[in-house]
Amino acid sequence: MSPKQLPAPGVDTYFPGHGDARYRVHRYELALDYRPGPNRLGGTARLSAVAGAEPLREFALDLADFRIGRILVDGRAAHYTHRAGKLRIRPAKALAAGAAFTVEVHYTGNPKPVRSQWGGLGWEELTDGALVASQPVGAPSWYPCNDRPADKASYQISITTPSPYTVIVGGRLLTRTTRASSTTWVYEQAAPTSSYLVTVSIGQYETLRVTDPAAGVEPLRRVPQTAYLPTPLMPRFTHDFGRQPQMMHLFEELFGPYPFGEYAVVVADEELDVPFEAQGVSTFGTNHLDGIRGSERLVAHELAHQWFGNSVTIADWRHIWLNEGFAKYAEWLWAERSGGRTAAQHAATAHAKLAALPQDLRLADPGRKLMFDDRLYERGGLTVHALRCALGEQAFFRMVKDWTAIHRHGVVGTADLVAHAGRYTDRRLDALLDAWLWRGPLPPLPVAP
Ligand SMILES: [Zn+2]
């Protein structure tokens, strides 16, 4: 069953102001123009959507402070109000339950990050270009959307910008057309994508194919891997990301086929606190290249999110540990399989670290304030390790591979994983998982029997 056929889950408890569960969007077509100097973004967003079980007299989109030109619903001008990041639209005629409809929003303005407890989210102007890092609620900083992770849609994104700049958006580059001094880049992301996972990078970048130097280590199905980065960083990049093809190979072996058509890595011409994942793309900062693979665990972490988070997506934000726990564990698996410390050693280190910290984090519902807390990542990794120890090697890896296959391009919650894992053992996992997921105190370090 496709996620589109499931009943719409309610509004996210961590971000009740975001999203509208009364309808679903299945496709976004954005045709935008961006001028880096004045930081000016404008154009049209066309959404194809379906009303839920109730007729819609009005509905809402999330969009930050832009000037709205006009809004059409099914081609007819609609009434709207635009206040505090919420665009409330009243179509000329109410939409019937289950009816397909289109919304067209013409808008223009100076995009800026959405303020949050984690700093600015979304569209960010760089010294020379721009990037978009939206997790969790930054998407409305640059386009009108139904901003909730469960509402996944396909995207076609067209961006016109001065020709010296390269535009990177997740997905397949359909066309690149230069007219006068501007170039239009059109990308298609056919796979269902959450609004927070749509990214844009604009900069003066070199394009590099990432190929596998080691003969005999060929991915089962070659995933095209491309990098975009400032030219001077080329030598460091070649070394630091040199093992990414082997990583891709390992993760396909452990987690199943790479879920998208291609994988891109952007190294923005700026330092970034943390790298971040988007659909088919990961973005790093200049500080993540040091020429000695000092950030290689993050290369693994971001790649793993393509399976955990991007393909298998959380229904709402309280399940964030499903993304970060598996991505953290993927770091440990990469280390273990590439001649570094074993996952068990990493688990012991993480356990010792957590033992010395306050134990008031409930992994399966950490609350908005703690959803990106360091402890969530470490405890998430440990919980996956606890499953590995409880299930045993064979059953654990079969469980993980089946998980990404069954929920490929879908939406999940913690209860789904608990039920799923239970099918791979005769042991009862309830007490073990209850302690890791729902209680504060740190359970003992899991060890393989
Ligand atoms: Zn992560």
From TrEMBL:
> Which EC number applies?
3.4.11.2
Q: Where does this one sit in the cell?
A: Cytoplasm
Q: Where is the Peptidase M1 membrane alanine aminopeptidase domain?
A: 244-436
Out of the domains of life, which is the source?
A: Bacteria
| Annotated Gene3D superfamilies | Neutral Protease Domain 2 (1.10.390.10), tricorn interacting facor f3 domain (2.60.40.1730)
Catalyses which reaction(s) = Release of an N-terminal amino acid, Xaa-|-Yaa- from a peptide, amide or arylamide. Xaa is preferably Ala, but may be most amino acids including Pro (slow action). When a terminal hydrophobic residue is followed by a prolyl residue, the two may be released as an intact Xaa-Pro dipeptide
Sorted UniProt keywords:
Cytoplasm, Hydrolase, Metal-binding, Metalloprotease, Protease, Zinc
- Cofactor(s) needed: Zn(2+)
Q: Record's family?
A: Belongs to the peptidase M1 family.
Q: What PANTHER family does the annotation carry?
A: LEUKOTRIENE A-4 HYDROLASE
What name does the UniProt record give this protein?
A: Aminopeptidase N
Say which species the protein is native to: Kitasatospora herbaricolor
